[in-house]
Amino acid sequence: MADVKLIGSPLSPYVLRVMITLSLKKVEYELLQEKFGEKSELLLKSNPVYKKIPVFIHHDRPICESAVIVEYIDEVWPESGCGAILPADAYHRALHRFWTFYVDDKLFPSLVAIGRAATAEGKAEAVERVRAGHLLLEEAFVELSEGKAFFGGDRLAYLDVMFGCFVNWIKEVEEFLSVELLDEATTPALHGWAARFREHEAVKEVMPDRGTVLEFFKFLHAMWAKEAADAKN
Amino acid sequence: MADVKLIGSPLSPYVLRVMITLSLKKVEYELLQEKFGEKSELLLKSNPVYKKIPVFIHHDRPICESAVIVEYIDEVWPESGCGAILPADAYHRALHRFWTFYVDDKLFPSLVAIGRAATAEGKAEAVERVRAGHLLLEEAFVELSEGKAFFGGDRLAYLDVMFGCFVNWIKEVEEFLSVELLDEATTPALHGWAARFREHEAVKEVMPDRGTVLEFFKFLHAMWAKEAADAKN
Lengths: 233, 233
Hints:
alpha+beta; Glutathione S-transferase Yfyf (Class Pi), Chain A, domain 2; about 5% strand; Omega/Tau-like (chains A, B)
C-alpha cells in the first residue's frame, strides 16, 4: 500500500484522471492531499521541474504529468481491475492520445479562459472555442464508440478518463456563468456520454460532487477577478 | 510502399522525429513534401484540427502529432530495424515521455523565443531558459544513459529521437546568434551525446545538413523580424 502514493487533490482534473484510473484498476494507494496554493516539500522534491500536481510515487520513484502517469499505471497493472485502459488497436490508441493532447492543449485552456475572461466579448469567444472543441469531440466519439456507451466502446478507456475528468467542471461553468457548452441539441452523443461517465461506479467513487466543484470554481473565479483587477491597477 | 506516407518536410524538427524513427525502423514510406507557408489540400483534409505537419498516413488513415505518430510506428513495427524505440522498462518509458513533454512544452518554445526576441534582454532571458533546460536534460541523460552513449543506453531510444531532432537547430542558433546553449563545459554529457546523435547512421540518412538548416533559420529569423516590425507599426 505505502508503495503507491499520489500527491494531489481530486479538485484538480489532472489528479482526478489518475484517481479514476486507479479506481478502474482497483489499485490501492495513499492519497497525499496537497492544499491549493501551497506546495509541500514532497511535491517540490518530487516534481522539481514543474512543481505541480499530480505526482505519482511508485516504489519511491516519482512520475509526473497526468498523461505519463496514466500510461505508466496502465503498463504496470495491465490486467488489474478493468484491464487495459489504452485500446488494443494501435490506430485507436493513436486517436485516444491525439484527442487527449487536444483536450489539454486547447479545450481545457479555453474552459479556463471562460472563467478568466475580463470582458463579455472575451467570454463569448472562449465559449465559442469550447463549443467548437466539443463538436470535434462529438465526431470523434461517434467514430470511436461505434454506437456504444463510451469512447472505449462498452467500457471506459483512455480518452474517457482523460476528457471525462472535466465533465463536472463543464457543468459548473455552464451553470455558474450561464453559458451553454455541452448541450443535448448540438452534441447529443457527447451529452449522453457525459451523463453515463458521471454515473460510472469507478468514477463516482472518486469524483468530487458538483457542489464541491462549484464551491471551488467560485473560489477560483473570485481569485481570477481579483488578479485581473490587480493587474489593471 | 504507398500504404505508408508522411506529409511534411525534414526542416521541421517535428517531422524529422518521424523520419528518424522510420529510418531506425527501416520502414519504407513516401514523403509528401509540404512547402513552408503553403498547406496542401491533403494536409488540410488529413489534419483538420491543427492543419500542421507532420501527418502520418497508414492504410489511408491519418495520424497527427509527432509524439503520437512515433508511438504508433513503434507499436505497429515493434521488431523492425532497430526494434522498440520506447524502453522496455515502464519507469524508463515514463521518464522518456516526461522529458519529451518538457522539450515540447518548454525547451523548443524557448529556443524559438531566442530567434524571435525583439530586445537584447528578451534574448538573454530566452537563452537562460534554454541553458537551464539543458542542465535538467544533462541530469536526465546521466540517469537514463547509465554511462552509455544515448538516452536509450547503447542504442537510440524515444527521447534520443524526440530531443535529438533539435540538435542541428541548437547549433545554428548558437552560431548565427552568437550564444552558448549546449557547451561542453556546462553540459559535457549532453554535448557528447549531441555529437554522437548527429553521427548516427539512421540520423545522418534523413537529417538536413547544417548549411540547409542555417539557411532556413536565417529565413525564419528575417520573417520574425519583419513580423515584429509590422506589429509595431
